[in-house]
Amino acid sequence: MNASWKPIHPDEDKFVTTALTMVKKAGAVVRAAFEQPSCDVHTKASNTDLVTETDQAVEKLLIQGLKGAFPDHKFIGEESVAGGQKIEYTDAPTWIIDPIDGTTNFVHRIPMVAICVGLAVKKQLRAGIVYNPITKELFQAQTGKGAFKNGFPIHVSSTKAVGKSVLILQLGADRSERLV
User: Fold this and answer.
1) How many CB atoms lie within 10 A of CB 27?
2) How far are the Cα atoms of 2, 64, 131, 161 from residue 98, in angstroms, in the given order?
3) Which domains are seen in the chain, by residue range?
4) In which residues is Mg(2+) bound (predicted)?
5) d(CA 156, CA 112)
């Protein structure tokens, strides 16, 4: 923990604790849907930009839960914005939500999915939560408090040589005929 750290908002810890509770509830929804043999899938901007009813239900659950606890907060949700909602990025505490990061994986029942929630206060990112409800890996970080996986501190590697490092890269998805 950084001893010189000062919160921008006095209730930041409460915000994060509430968000963690909501993310775990949302995780149960994702896990239950993942265990089903299939799901309804729709496309957004392209044939690789997918959305499911679970994406929409999880975003709604998170926004309603957080708004119920913090009615003056703002929200930027991936599915809401894709549906035409205008982005309002102000100094008010703002939650940035991707209800299922990895929807393509979710649709194909590949367990590499995550609920991602970030918190900005006065336009500064203050906290982030990434939860894979299938593998039950919960990552969280908060400015000045460090980063954790399932409650245990995590740190970047001290390895400086690329040859001794593990690098992972995902290039995304493209279903164009030219690549097939």
Assistant:
1) 19
2) 28, 15, 11, 33
3) 12-154 (3.30.540.10)
4) 78, 98, 100-101
5) 21
Instruction: Check the annotation: does 100 bind a ligand.
Output: yes
Strand duo 152-154 + 146-149: pairing: antiparallel
pLDDT of residue 151: 96
- Ligand-binding annotation for 88, yes or no, is no
> Does the annotation list 49 as a binding residue?
no
pLDDT in tens, 74-129: 999 988 877 778 888 899 999 999 999 988 889 989 999 999 999 999 999 999 99
CA nearest 33: which of 15, 12, 54? 54
78 is in an annotated binding site: yes
pLDDT digits (tens, 9 = 90+) for 14-50: 999 999 999 999 999 999 999 987 777 777 666 666 7
